[in-house]
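User:
I would dearly like some help making sense of a protein record. Take your time, and here it is.
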Amino acid sequence: MTSSTEVKSSKKPADTRGLAGQTVGDTQICQVSQTELIYRGYEIADLAEHATFEEVAHVLLVGHKPTADELKRFKDELVSMRAVDRGILEVIGKIARSEPSSDDAHPMGILRTGISLLSHVDPDCEDNSPEAQMRKSKRLLAQIPTIIGYGQMSCEGKTPVDPDPNLDLAANLLWCMTGEKPSELNAKVMDVSLILYAEHDFNASTFAARVIASTEADMHSAVCGAIGALKGPLHGGANEKAMAMLKDIDAYIAAGNGDVDSFMAEAFAEKRKLMGFGHRVYKNGDHRAGILRSWGLKIAEQNGPDAKKWFDIGDRVQQIMFEQKNIYPNVDFPCGMTYFVMGIPVPQYTPIFVASRITGWCAHIMEQHQDNRLIRPLANYTGPALTKWNEARS
């Protein structure tokens, strides 16, 4: 009889690469589960339906739902902080104009540079006190749309516009990027998308920010690191790649090569990576995806058949992925379609993500600094065995 110590489990060990399934810290900011996404006690669908982005930003940064007076002061404060040092904007414009005129020219690098430059003119940069951290968080939230807009308008060879103090943050972001006042519906959809993207516990960019903050580095340094992490297509860049895939499908159909089904069959056969699907946490669907799809579809239907076709293609892709792979879309898939029918340049999709997620990042940086311990995990060494230098063959 085999003793209990000799019995080996037939269960395959869990793949913990990339810290999959590992809990690495505590947070009061956000809870992510298979059934809910909660910001400081408020569920995401409830926020998307009833709150504004500024209210959600107040919840994440300050820690509670604002009263009417608190919200007015918060919004007025953000509006007063929107202006960016003229010298920094000139650098942003110069970099943007020097970028190649192609889809490969990525504004995330421009935005990362802009945040780094802001650190040199922020009087609180090296102060990690709670009061200074809050002031820096508000400045970054207010100024990022200005930098995004200045970079985009410069890239297109247009004259950048100044922030509009009469517009809320979401509408002002659209104004700065396009130089056109957004419709009420477009402003609302942008506001909802910013709410949906604002926070998501220890995702790659947030964890990167917390690691940097744990060294007691300044907030701007941590945010620059987070932007670097978000730039990757497996994180923030997925919405751009998802839209690129839909364009490929549209071109495939227009060329007479087949329909969505045949395109997907070829993609499966060639084992292509299809962006905008699956999630490291959500296995039964991303709570945010359906919310954003519904709002994006309203814009598409308002804009006519040429806009609606992107949702027709996208819906069929989603259906095929579910039926054949049992994989659900994440929020980046409807985001690509939604921003596209809104007329937003594709390379700006991820910077818009930053304009939202800056609230979550700053909340986490402040939380890390308030109860800090250097984040320093261990690694499992899998390299060569110990060898004497003089015995090794050269």
The radius of gyration is 23 Å. The chain has two domains: 30-232+348-370, 238-341. Residues 238-341 form a domain with the Cytochrome p450-Terp; domain 2 fold (CATH 1.10.230.10). The longest helix spans residues 130-155.
